[in-house]
Design goal:
globular; single chain; 207 residues; 6 helices; two-stranded antiparallel ribbon; Pnp Oxidase, Chain A
């Protein structure tokens, strides 16, 4: 065995594995997802009307070809919601509901770093056929109010009348698909500058 292999093995051995009680692990994961999530902001004054968190990386596959998409997300417990415009990620989810999601802090060895590797099933929820659920979810996410503010500012800048504003707003939003991501396995990696590294795996309980 080479010196390099010995060194790599000894470093790997320092990662504590599956030492966290299941209830504590679930609490930590829920707290991290909630902390990293985007959420409604303020529509008053200038600036973005959403309070953005960490973006996630959504990984989808179609015919064996993977695609990784950085995308904003909104948490509802363990469930992750995204809004996607027409594109390859939507096609991929339509053909293969198995997805992976990465959520992580930028690496800094001087502070606590946390990351999640998520295996999940994804469901597309379009506007057509799900009008009430679609609008309610966008409202809860703060996306509806954000779009309302942005489009209102565009109307004002262009001198357009607001007679058809509501219809134009819904027509703009209906291009999107909601992506509902429900995890069944999550790897939680925690790297602390003095406490070391720990990797724990959460699995969804059988129904």
């Amino acid at each position: 065995m080479s010196d390099t292999t010995k060194k790599e093995t000894s470093l790997s051995d320092h990662i504590q594995k599956n030492t966290m009680p299941p209830e504590e692990l679930e609490r930590e994961i829920l707290a991290f997802i909630d902390d990293a999530s985007s959420r409604p902001g303020t529509v008053e004054g200038p600036g973005c009307p959403l309070k953005h968190g960490l973006a996630c990386v959504l990984c989808t596959v179609h015919n064996g070809e993977p695609r990784a998409t950085p995308i904003d997300f909104f948490a509802d417990g363990m469930t992750i919601w995204c809004a996607g415009e027409p594109g390859l990620k939507i096609r991929n989810v339509r053909s293969n509901q198995k997805v992976a999601v990465g959520i992580y802090h930028p690496m800094d060895h001087g502070v606590l770093n946390r990351s999640l590797q998520i295996h999940a099933n994804a469901t597309l929820i379009p506007y057509a056929g799900h009008e009430q659920e679609f609008i309610e979810r966008l409202t809860n996410m703060g996306v509806y109010a954000a779009a309302e503010k942005i489009m209102g500012e565009m109307f004002a800048a262009q001198g357009k009348k607001a007679d058809s504003f509501e219809a134009d707003l819904v027509n703009a939003l209906r291009r999107f698909n909601l992506i509902k991501i429900e995890p069944y396995e999550i790897t939680y990696l925690r790297i602390h500058p003095t406490e070391g590294a720990a990797k724990n795996i959460w699995q969804k309980a059988e129904a």
